[in-house]
Design brief:
The mean pLDDT is about 95. The protein folds into three domains: about 45 residues, Transferase, Pyrimidine Nucleoside Phosphorylase, Chain A, domain 3, CATH 1.20.970.10; about 230 residues, Nucleoside phosphorylase/phosphoribosyltransferase catalytic domain (Pyrimidine Nucleoside Phosphorylase, Chain A, domain 2, 3-Layer(aba) Sandwich); about 90 residues, Aldehyde Oxidoreductase, domain 3, CATH 3.90.1170. Strands 1-4-5-13 form a four-stranded mixed beta sheet, sandwiched between helices. Helix 10 links the parallel strand 4 and strand 5. It is an alpha/beta fold. It contains 17 helices and 13 strands. About 45% of the residues lie in helices and about 15% in strands. It is globular and about 65 Å long. The longest helix is centred in the middle third of the chain and has 18 residues. The structure holds uracil. Uracil (URA) binds next to helix 9.
């Protein structure tokens, strides 16, 4: 078989068979497929789409490109959460410490930034000393000791996805239902889970711009999940504006701690509780959200979740105090409104892009992230704004980077005389 023939077949819109997909994915591991060929494959998948059969084969081949966890000895329901990616989406960082208070195991393998969206792994890497690359023994010990770990994908965990993920990030090839399904589920099927809570983001800052395409993605994921026997609950949540107020790696760690200590925005609290409830119900710990919500509120409001966050970070070697001092006195740039009225809309895609321009994400595969860079929003949809009032504050260690993202971000705020309510947060929910 020739890789170029597989590429041409996909380019021309034909369905690839199991052997061709297997040959291609194996080629990624044994270096018979170059990055250039992988990029061509991904672009063809984006433009021509993947059938449900192709998506399932691709998911299984990517899953089998590495090892599979065996957590049989962990005598608790094993439940993870994954999001399709958003701007300011720090929910995984809040979920883990909340769930550490329950009799559930959360083996969380997270991703790095993808396209304009941020990644939990990059956020955790902003913490000095935090060990994100774990091995089997660490996974076990942390699940036994804390009931949770947060880690990155290593070369053992669906390595074919790891390679494709990096290439998709910088080649404009993220927005494909088949590729997103295979990427997420190949990793999740490795984790030996009892259930998965999926947060499918919908809106102008998401890969799925409207509910109907989000439903198509959910159908695609549900197809593979049913076939492989994975229980899944899907929450469709709005990404019509960034979640919370802070966007950027360390900034989102900061907002996580503020939120767990009682200074939270409504969207962060509501979505966190919704996803935690889904995980607890999927894990069989509660029958309904009323019961799970009651217990989760107690864990949050008593300060236990905030303590658990510190415990989790320290258990993986992180030093929050040292990190705080590292990002103090970062250069700032204020964006000021030249209009008065109500915030009607925030272009979330371009807000994410402005963050990348400041150094908070990668423009190319080998780019180094500025972990302290990012955006602090001062206004969200529905807020009033006066002329001269601050809309947002930019942060970057390189002051020369401020001009273009400042102009871009200013244009992301649509201000008018008509009041607009904040968009509905939870748009739909499916149980698979
Ligand atoms: N998260 C992933 O792991 N993969 C995607 O394609 C999108 C979000």
């Amino acid at each position: 078989m020739l890789i170029t023939e597989i590429l041409k077949k996909k380019r021309d819109g034909f369905e690839l068979n199991k052997d061709e997909i297997s040959y291609f994915i194996k080629g990624l591991s044994n270096f018979n497929v170059s990055d250039i060929q992988a990029a061509a494959f991904l672009m063809a998948c984006c433009t021509k789409g993947l059938s449900s059969k192709e998506t399932t084969y691709l998911t299984y081949q990517m899953r089998d490109s590495g090892e599979k966890f065996n957590f049989a000895k962990i005598n608790k329901p094993k439940v993870d959460k994954h999001s399709t990616g958003g701007v300011g989406d720090k929910i995984s960082l809040l979920i883990t410490p909340l769930l550490m208070a329950f009799d559930i195991a959360v083996p969380m393998i997270s991703g790095r930034g993808l396209g304009h969206t941020g990644g939990t792994v990059d956020k955790l890497e902003s913490i000095s000393g935090f060990k994100i690359r774990l091995d089997y023994e660490d996974y076990f010990n942390l699940l036994i000791q804390n009931g949770a770990f947060m880690a990155c994908q290593t070369d053992d965990i669906a390595p074919a996805d790891k390679k494709l993920y990096h290439i998709r990030d910088v080649t404009g090839t993220v927005e494909s239902i088949g590729l997103i399904t295979a990427s997420i589920l190949s990793k999740k099927l490795v984790e030996d889970l009892d259930a998965l809570a999926m947060d499918i983001k919908v809106g102008n800052g998401a890969f799925m711009r409207d509910l109907s395409s989000a439903h198509q993605l959910a159908e695609s994921m549900a197809g593979v999940a049913r076939e492989s026997g994975l229980k899944m609950r899907i929450i469709f949540s709005s990404m019509e504006q960034p979640l919370g107020y802070k966007i950027g790696n360390w900034l989102e760690i900061e907002e996580t701690m503020e939120s767990l200590n009682g200074q939270y925005s409504a969207d962060i609290r509501d979505l966190t509780l919704k996803l935690c409830s889904s995980m607890l119900i999927a894990g069989g710990l509660f029958d309904n959200e009323l019961e799970s919500g009651l217990e989760l509120n107690k864990v949050w409001d008593s300060g236990l979740a905030a303590k658990n966050f510190v415990k989790m970070i320290e258990a993986q070697g992180g030093n929050l105090e040292l990190s705080k001092s590292k990002y103090e006195n970062y250069p700032e740039y204020e964006i000021v409104s030249d209009k008065r009225g109500f915030i009607q809309q925030i272009d979330t895609l371009y807000t994410g892009i402005a963050g990348i321009m400041l150094g908070a994400g990668r423009k190319d595969i080998n780019d180094k992230i500025d972990y302290g860079a990012g955006i602090i929003l001062n206004k969200k949809i529905g807020d009033t704004v006066e002329i001269g009032e601050t809309l947002a504050v930019l942060k970057s260690k390189d002051k020369s980077l401020f001009d273009s993202p400042a102009e871009l971000l200013k244009n992301c705020f649509i201000i008018s005389d008509d009041y607009k309510k904040a968009p509905k947060l939870i748009l739909d929910e499916w149980v698979i």
